[in-house]
Amino acid sequence: MYILAPSVLAADFGKLAEDTAKAREGGASYLHLDVMDGAFVPSISFGMPVIASLRGYTDLVFDVHMMVEDPGRYVESIRAAGADIITVHQEACTHLDRVIGQIKASGAKAGVALNPATPVSTLECVLDQVDMVLVMSVNPGFGGQKFIPYTLDKVRALRQYFDRKGLSTDIQVDGGVNRDTIRPLIEAGANVLVAGSAVFGGDVKANVETFMNIFKEYER
Ligand SMILES: O=C(CO)[C@@H](O)[C@H](O)COP(=O)(O)O
Ligand SMILES: [Co+2]
């Protein structure tokens, strides 16, 4: 029911395949891949070649978070590189409906992300079409930032909406997720939790297991 998506942004890039294998051993089923273009967000991370290379080393679900302007330009190539879920930012898409259609046509699951200060109401017209909504709980661009508490209200509003509609749409939260912030997030309705520094800082397998044990508290 609950899914941990370790964000490789905090991994040792010289040992990506090794760190990914450790996350899998601990029980993770997703791998969160942060693509940054230096325009939508200040930093530049990695793109298709790194994702395609890593695809050869793991069967984890590749959950690609596109922090790029006009992400529709890259949907097919990110899918070809191995993405299973492609999440685009509402703020980066002039034609959001079209990009969601493009992602689905590629065969990937479609996610839409919101920056902390972007209201849930901006997704009103597309909420019934997407497989996942990503609530950013830090301003995107960097790992290791502090969780922004007001984003919990957005998670609650989304879960209420999906429950009312009888939809099992995933709600993902990304940014500052750790053993202190994860319980309020689950209680608010999040079910896909991204964690970068809390997973890849230190013993990766043990860190993932800690999250898995917290999930068990809610799955009983
Ligand atoms: O998308 C992003 C940052 O923009 C994230 O996926 C970070 O990589 C999460 O890192 P932590 O906050 O968990 O360290
Ligand atoms: Co991310």
UniProtKB/TrEMBL annotation:
Transmembrane segments: none annotated. GO terms for molecular function: D-ribulose-phosphate 3-epimerase activity; metal ion binding. The active site is at D34 (proton acceptor), D174 (proton donor). SUPFAM superfamilies: Ribulose-phoshate binding barrel (SSF51366). Substrate binds at S7, H65, G141, F142, G143, G144, D174, G175, G176, G196, S197. One of its GO terms (cellular component) is cytoplasm. NCBIfam families: PRK05581.1-4, rpe. Belongs to the ribulose-phosphate 3-epimerase family. This is Ribulose-phosphate 3-epimerase. It comes from Enterocloster lavalensis.
